[in-house]
Amino acid sequence: MTAEVVHPAGDPQIGNLATPINSSPFAKALINNLPAYRLGLSPQRRGLEIGMAHGYLLFGPFAYTSQFRNSGVSDLVGLIEAVILVVILTVCLSLYGSVGVQKPIATITTPNPPEALGTSEGWSEFAGSFLVGGIGGAAFAYAVFQVVKSGVFETFGNLIN
């Protein structure tokens, strides 16, 4: 007895295939709880959440792997580079939204894609909020890095002991 592991999800002409990975309840729950697909969010909220995550995560690699990594300004360079990349990504989002966006396609993993991202206005709102969130996320990561680098936690630990 052989069972089909990969099979078409609906019309086989579309190419939306159901696999054990993308059709599992865990994968569906995980992806549908991400800000890009979560139900009930406005484009501004989606952009803000996604931008904050990107800005926060971009700071570290730029601070630790730039050509200034062994200098005293590596953290500031990491902040500036993360902000520059967020601005570049925002320009790309704006360009994508300006070329005539179509309705998002429903797949087996994301059966209810956000309708608001099917318009140029929705993408414009998303891109603007992505910029604000990305710069804020990078600034927050910079602030956390400064607190950890200054040894505030060690000082606080010495006060308790």
List the helices and strands and how they pair.
Layout: E1 7-8, E2 17-18, H1 25-32, H2 43-65, H3 74-98, H4 120-150, H5 152-160
Antiparallel strand pairs: 1-2
Helix pairs in contact: 2-3, 2-4, 3-4
What are the salient characteristics of this protein?
161 residues, mainly alpha, Photosystem 1 Reaction Centre Subunit Xi, Chain: L, two-stranded antiparallel sheet, 2 strands, globular
Explain how this protein is built:
The protein has 161 residues and is mainly α. It has one domain (15-160): Photosystem 1 Reaction Centre Subunit Xi, Chain: L (Up-down Bundle). It contains five helices and two strands, in the order ββααααα. The protein has helices spanning 25-32, 43-65, 74-98, 120-150, 152-160; strands spanning 7-8, 17-18. The chain has a two-stranded antiparallel ribbon. Helix 2 packs antiparallel against helix 3 (74-98) and helix 2 (43-65) crosses helix 4 (120-150). The protein is globular, with a radius of gyration of 21 Å. The termini are far apart. The model has no long low-confidence stretch (mean pLDDT 87).
- Multimerization status: single chain
Please give the order of strands in the largest beta sheet.
1-2
For the termini, the CA-CA separation is 68 Å
The CATH topology assignment is Photosystem 1 Reaction Centre Subunit Xi, Chain: L
Q: Would you count the extended β strands for me?
A: 2
Biggest pleated sheet? 2 strands, antiparallel
Unreliable parts: none
Q: Could you say which structural class the secondary elements and strand pairing correspond to?
A: mainly alpha
State mean pLDDT (0 to 100 scale). 87
Query: What radius of gyration results from the CA coordinates?
Result: 21 Å
